[in-house]
Amino acid sequence: MTHRRLTCALLAAALTPLALALTAPAAHAATAAKPYDFNGDGRVDLAIGAPGATVGGKSKAGAVSVVYGGTGGLKTATRTLITQNTAGVPGTAEADDAFGSAVASADLDTDGYADLLIGAPGEDVDGDTNDGYAVVVWGTKSGLSGARSVPNFLERDADRFGQSLAAGDVEADGDPDIVVGSNGPFKLSFINGPFTRTSSSQGGSGAGFPAPYSSTYGITSLSVGPVTAAWHTNLVVHGRKSDGAAITHLVTEPNIGNYTDWMQTLPAGYVSAIGDIDKDGYADIAVGNDRETSADPAGAKGGKVTVVYGGPAGLDSSRAPLVLTQDTAGVPGASETGDRFGSGVSFGDVNGDGYADLAVGASGENSGAGSVTVLYGSASGLRTSGVQSFTQNTAGVPGSSEANDRFGARVLLADHSGDRRAELTVSATGENGDGAVWSLRGATSGATTGGAISFGPATTGVSTAGSPGYGTALNS
């Protein structure tokens, strides 16, 4: 049936969990939870988007699997499957909804449990094809349960609402807000917090974004983090020009009336991550551009990642950006056409030294088998010595490298175990035609393959009919 978006009443029915018997449930927290800590136990949980999943016989309806963290890392025995056929989730699973195309998280109601945002850009609303839709699923002591729609104040001027998502205090007023990317005349929507289970919306606003942002592509990806000293949470916004080439900006203040004052130009790319590499108190930005120059003039042979260092006002103009390719001295491999180095980027502290490390996916490496590179932070910036590289042929990594696995399509560095060292989580969206996820533990020596795990969609209840694209989205 066609979903009606503006119904935002509380939907109290709990999600149907799969083996949701969590051990030692956390007490109610007094302060807001970190993103993706859905049960408030201090560990980051993992949301896995499979927008191509078949649900109730509907092709490409989409699903999201959530695997909870534990003392040994991710625990597939404690998980929740979320679709639009899950009790309490607004709407109904329909063909081509693409539920799970994007995910984001924040403790939107500041109850001590992070909440999960899910985008379904293919959702039809009131007869409008691909109008799009987004939903909040609420965190609780026992995991995710209950949901409500995210209001779209600009539905007549935006399509594919939910194709990108972010959450954080972008207004710097102490309340977390929701940011939704779409295409059309208005490409970015801000939904003002606080956003709770029972309250009416606090209102919102939209940004059309000036040329050369194309309305056809809209806002394709978003990242959030505290880049500038004057603003609590900044946005990195990705879109495309009319010819398909990437364009990227840092939003230093969401003052919708004056674009030139709140946008700083970043190196063009399709994905980004924000983290403090050198522990100077200012976050840095890594922008991945995995395209060849024939597809994007800002790309590079085999793809590239550009690291821009942050300062008090945003970008630090006194420090030259660091451009990384597989031809960079110290980076394993060599730049070859189609490697797609930069298909995924993520910051996290793998070795527990307080400096943000960088994981880079190269999903096209070796005829699409894929690889992941990990570079380590230091007081002087990102090091190109001691770099690690992983494929499915690396000793201790489950599986074997095969053409079109796309290992490294998405990467994530996050502490799922609570030991203050980030695990390296990798998705391979083409594995066995279905997609799969790997997780490697962090250690003082770096990422380690000891105890590495891998699992596919069937493990978490996602149908393998068609091409589910398991791992198309991971924690943003």
Automatic annotation (TrEMBL):
SMART domains: Int_alpha. GO terms for cellular component: integrin complex. One of its GO terms (biological process) is cell adhesion. GO terms for molecular function: hydrolase activity. The keyword Mitochondrion does not apply. InterPro entries: FG-GAP, Int_alpha_beta-p, Integrin_alpha, Integrin_alpha_N. Residues 457-476 are annotated as: Disordered. Keywords: Glycoprotein, Hydrolase, Repeat, Signal. Residues 1-29 form the signal peptide. This is FG-GAP repeat protein. It comes from Streptomyces chartreusis.
